[in-house]
Amino acid sequence: MLDDASLILQLNTGDKEAFETIYDRYSVDLYKFIFSRIRIKEISEEIVQEIFVSLWAKRESLKIASLSAYLFSASKYQILTYIRSDKVRKRYAAEFVLYLSGRHDNSIEEFINTSDLNSLIEKAITELPEKCQQVFRMSRFEHLTIKEIAERLNISTRTVENYITQSLRHLRLSLGEFLAFLLWLSIYNK
After folding, report:
1. How far does Cα 24 stand from its chain's mean position?
2. How far apart are CA 85 and CA 178, in angstroms?
3. Per-residue model confidence as pLDDT tens digits over 2-38
4. pLDDT over 90 percentage in the chain
5. Class assignment of domain 104-188?
6. CA distances from 93 to 38, 78, 99, 159 (A)
7. Chain mean position to CA 177
8. For residues 155 and 148, is the Cβ–Cβ distance under 8 A?
9. Which CATH architecture has domain 4-93?
10. CB count, 10 Å around CB of 53?
11. Of the candidates 17, 5, 178, which has an alpha carbon nearest to the alpha carbon of residue 93?
């Protein structure tokens, strides 16, 4: 088994086996480290891949004293980059909500009802299980609270929350993140 210093020297010459050995040796630990901070499987996997793609791209010019320190340092940098970009996205989403709220009272509903979005939403809702449809319609169209829905249907508030979560997940997949976000806003901003 080669030590890290030998692997770095071989990597500098473009040795694919050395690269694969480094990947096998560190990818799982890097993933665990990244996932422990981000808690999103896909993003964590993507960051691990970015780190190794970057390592391969810079293989000829790398001057690394400690491979482990280099990889975990790169992980920290990628995590910070992700967090910054996530904050940027959230900031823009918040600004968008402020923009919509600056319009007249029914701005979100009016925005959703433009074009043929209403029919797309209705089609996605009808694809839901019957109980989810019922709960979602009571929440979205009748503007009932979770507690009111639970009392009317004689089910727990937790069950209502689960139905709404399931409905929004389905709508997100059917309509895309943006429309589901707007629906969520229209439900919870009442």
Report:
1. 26
2. 17
3. 999 999 999 999 999 999 999 999 999 999 999 998 8
4. 48
5. mainly alpha
6. 20, 22, 10, 29
7. 10
8. no
9. Orthogonal Bundle (1.10)
10. 10
11. 178
Domain boundaries, the chain: 4-93, 104-188
Tokens encoding 35:
């996932």
Residues 6 or more apart whose Cβ sits within 8 Å of residue 121? 112, 171, 175, 179, 183
Q: Which two tokens stand for residue 105?
A: 């009272």
pLDDT digits (tens, 9 = 90+) for 137-157: 898 888 889 999 999 999 999
Give the whole-angstrom CA distance, residue 187 versus residue 149.
13
Tokens in use for 129?
A: 């299980």
Q: What is the distance between the alpha carbons of residues 167 and 183, in angstroms, rounded to a whole number?
A: 11
Contact by Cβ (8 Å): 66, 4: yes
Burial class for 92, CB neighbours closer than 10 Å (0-12, 13-18, 19+): exposed
58: its two tokens:
């810079």
